[in-house]
Write a structure and sequence with these properties.
Elements lengths: L2 E3 L5 E3 L1 E4 L5 H14 L3 E3 L7 H9 L9 E6 L6 H15 L4 E6 L6 H13 L3 E7 L3 H9 L7 E5 L7 H9 L3 E5 L13 H10 L3 H10 L4 E4 L4 H8 L8 H8 L14 H8 L6
Parallel strand pairs: 3-4, 3-10, 4-5, 5-6, 6-7, 7-8, 8-9, 9-10
Antiparallel strand pairs: 1-2
Helix pairs in contact: 1-2, 1-9, 2-3, 3-4, 7-8
Length: 282
Amino acid sequence: MQKVRLNNGVEMPILGFGTFQIPDNETEQAVIQAIQAGYRHIDTAQSYMNEEATGLGIANSGVAREELFITTKIWIENTSYEGVQASFQRSLERLGLDYVDLLLLHQPYNDVYGAWRAMEELQKEGKIKAIGVSNFAVDRVVDLALFNEITPQINQIEINPFHQQKEVIDALRQEEVVPEAWAPFAEGKNNIFQNELLSEIGKKYNKSVAQVIIRWLVEQDIVVLAKTVSPQRMKENLDVFDFSLTKEDKEQISTLNIGDSQFFSHSDPKMIKALASRKINV
């Protein structure tokens, strides 16, 4: 598996298995199947409500813990110094782990600076190998880095053919922050899996639209999270290292960029209030 090196030297598999929206009662088996298919990077979060099932999948996968890269995320109501300290310990207990490889602040709201200081301390204690953020605008990433000891190692953001975020990605790289893509398939919006342009590119290489999208991201050194409960598609999504896109392919894909989120704006006051009101009590 190809890896990317974070700004603190930690190596992270470039392909990850996402557990968002996988029902709790299906998560354990999905994680086992993903690891058996070849995934070594598993992504969960407090707000997904499936950390315990993810931990069971890890424990029952038959693969040693040290071979795996595990991510979880702190939800908004726990985004404070005390909230991180308490809720992260509960996350470890649910996952059945002594440490995680990556801990992220899931949203850029609440006391992110207090939360970040707690994460820095936990990293120094060896309970977290890398720390980062999710859904942060570049200016918030820079601000966090300037006034704290540790620069975020990751920013997990929406990146897909309809929302390519080239300027954001370039700016993150200038700060030595690795971009990580959630919703690389835009959750099927705009009939992405039937997109004529992506389908034609895929036919040239005998690859699916999903494989073309993943390859497009990998060639930009962007970490990719893909979710599926199909063992066949798990294997398919990993099978992207035997072909390369041409310059023309990439130029064609660039024409699909709409430039807006396929979901919602993280600067919309109504959305901020809606997200902040979601209590998970974990």
